[in-house]
Design goal:
Helix 1 packs across helix 3. The protein has 77 residues and is an alpha+beta fold. A hairpin with a 2-residue loop joins strand 1 and strand 2.
Length: 77
């Protein structure tokens, strides 16, 4: 298992965009991302000055069909 870095919502959104997801709408402080041909959506909270919790990030990565190692590579791409 790869160690996930502490990142904020915008960094997570950029990594998911590199994986093919796009922002489809915003509801409050949550950005909703979808991937063409993908059944599920991702809801990423963006709160200024706060990092995402590790459990939430792991759940979003799994729901996106990625491994933690693939996600970390997308972060630093």
């Amino acid at each position: 298992m790869c160690k996930l870095p502490a990142i904020d919502g915008w960094e997570a959104i950029r990594a998911f965009e590199r994986a093919g997801f796009t922002i489809v709408r915003k509801k409050g402080s949550h950005y909703i991302l979808r991937k063409k041909g993908w059944r599920y959506h991702l809801s990423i909270p963006v709160h200024k000055g706060k990092n995402l919790k590790k459990g939430l990030l792991r759940k979003q990565i799994k729901q996106a069909g990625l491994t933690e190692a693939e996600f970390v590579k997308l972060l630093w791409k």
